[in-house]
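Please decode residue identities from the backbone states below.
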């Protein structure tokens, strides 16, 4: 299950985060990938707002994890960017948080994917123009996922409303699934 959006502004990217944040549940793990300036922190700020968290969200680059309380659920914001973080994520008890009571977001998750719990909601941000970004949301880690967990993320993705300032792209054609419609969209994907 994948949905692809084109966000036309930073506010629109944040709003996608808000709409997800409003619906997330304890234990969900999101991965967040995208180059510098792609909008990762902007998106997490939205997630935090959607969870009702009022304190500010910054890039956690120089800390392994930033915890934000005061919302409907705690938000654990991890950053696997620095060299060696892979080990720290494992050794420093990240699994105390990952997949537990709160919502976990792991930036630069590509580096640690093999160690993350399944399933996950993958968020990928890609530069398009100076003011526009592709936002790809998909399920990941189907193997080894507890019964029903993947379906729950799929249901969230399927029912997610497109906020203002966001246009939905055609879903990629899936040759192995003829039942899947190839297009929902208004614009072409990259
Ligand atoms: P990252 O954390 O991935 O390095 P940030 O969220 O800190 O990125 O920064 C994204 C920058 O890009 C901000 O300055 C933001 O205003 C700008 N921007 C412009 N258009 C968009 C968009 N459509 N979505 C997200 N950010 C955007
Ligand atoms: Mg950042």
């Amino acid at each position: 299950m994948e949905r692809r959006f084109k966000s036309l502004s930073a506010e629109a990217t944040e709003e996608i985060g808000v709409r997800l944040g409003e619906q997330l549940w304890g234990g969900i793990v999101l991965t967040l990938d995208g180059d510098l300036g792609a909008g990762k922190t902007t998106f997490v700020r939205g997630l935090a707002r959607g969870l009702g968290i009022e304190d500010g969200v910054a890039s956690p680059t120089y800390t392994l994890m930033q915890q934000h309380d005061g919302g409907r659920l705690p938000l654990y914001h991890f950053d696997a960017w620095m060299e060696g973080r892979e080990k720290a994520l494992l050794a420093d008890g990240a699994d105390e948080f990952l997949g537990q009571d709160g919502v976990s977001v792991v930036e630069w998750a590509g580096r640690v994917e093999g160690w993350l719990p399944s399933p996950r909601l993958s968020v990928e941000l890609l530069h398009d123009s100076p003011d526009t970004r592709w936002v790809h949301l998909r399920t990941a880690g189907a193997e080894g996922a507890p019964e029903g967990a993947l379906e729950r993320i799929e249901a969230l993705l399927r029912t997610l409303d497109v906020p203002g300032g966001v246009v939905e792209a055609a879903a990629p054609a899936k040759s192995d699934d003829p039942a899947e419609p190839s297009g929902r969209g208004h614009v072409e994907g990259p």
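Observation: The longest strand covers residues 120-129.
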